[in-house]
User: Fold this.
Amino acid sequence: MRDAAATRERLLRKPWGRLSLGLLSFFYGLGVFLRRLLYRAGVLRSLKLKARVVSIGNLTAGGTGKTPTVLLAAATLKKRGAQIAILSRGYGGKGSGQAVMTLLDGSEGPSAEECGDEPWMMHQTLKGQDIPILVAKDRSKAGELAVTFYHSEVIILDDGFQHFKLDRDLDIVLVNAMQPFGDGHLLPLGFLREPRRALRRADMILLTHADLAHKSRLDSIEAEIKAINPRAPILHASHKADFLMDLRNGKKSPPSELAGRKIVSFCGIAEPESFEATLVELDAKITQKWRYPDHHPFTAREIQSLQHLRNGLPVVTTMKDFTRFPAGWADILDGDVYALGIKLHLSKGREAWQSAFEALSPSK
Assistant:
C-alpha cells in the first residue's frame, strides 16, 4: 500500500502520469456504474438475511472513522438487548480470503496478522460482550453463518456501502468533514470509491471529525449533501479518548493520566491529525510525531529507530497500530508504551441515531 501511494504521488507530478491516472479513473468509474446497473436490473442479486442489517461505510478511500462508528452501533444495539454480530472484510489480514474466521469471546481465534488490524481491535474493545466478529471476503456467506450459528438478530456490516451482495435495512455513510469528497476524482486519480451522487442511497449521513472543521465549512458540506440527498438526516461526530491501555500488561486507565506529560505520538493511520488532536485535547505535550501510511506493518528496525530517538519519553499509539507491532517489540522499547482507545461522540443528531436503531431492534 505504501508503494502504491508513493507511485501515485510520483505520477501526479507528471502530465503523462496524471493523464494515465485519469484514464484508469474513467475505466474504474465505468466498472462501478456497470456493477451497480447489474444489481439494479436484477442480473446480480443481493442476499436478504433472516436478520436486520445495518451497513456502515463511506464514499472515499481512507479514514473516516468507520471502526469507532461500528463500535458505537454495537453498543447502541447491545443496550437494546439485540443479539448482534459484526461482519468485516479484514483488510490487510493474511487469512481474510474465502474462509470465514471468527473472533469470539472465550476462544483463541485468529491473530491480528491473520484477520486484519481493524477486526482484531474491535474484538479487543468488545471483549466480554459476547459479540462475534466474522471476517471473510464473502460477507454474505459470513452473514448466513452468523444467523445460523450465533442466532444474530442484527448484523453490522463494516465498510459495506459498496457491498451490494447483502441487502440492508439501514445504510449509514460517513463523510470526513476535513476532506469530504477527496479531491472530487474517482480512484486512482482521486480518492472517491463512487461518484458523490451515490449518497442518494444513504439513509443517514455522519459528518466525522466535525470538531476539527469551522462551522461555515460544516454548513457548506451539509448544503452540498442535502442537494444530493434531502431525506437523509445529517449527524455530526468527533473522536474522543476512551481509555489508555498499558501495552506491557493490558491494564486500562483513564486517558486523563496523559495530562501534562511529555509524550511521543506514533501511528500509521489515514488521519494522524485526528489522533494527535485527541492527544492535545487531553493536554498531553507531544514532543515528536511519528507518522506512517494507513495499515503500515511496522518493522523491528522502525521500532529500534523509535527507541533510539524518543529520549526515554512515553510512546502513545493507537489500538489499531498496536496490532501491527512486530514480534519482540517489548524487548526493543523500554519504559512506558500505551495505546489510546477511541470512541465516537455524537455532537449533533443523537435523537436521529437512537430512532434509527430503535427501528432495528428485534421487537420492531
Notes: The mean pLDDT is 93. The domain at 52-238+345-360 is CATH 3.40.50.300 (Rossmann fold). The longest strand covers residues 234-246. The chain has twelve helices and 13 strands.
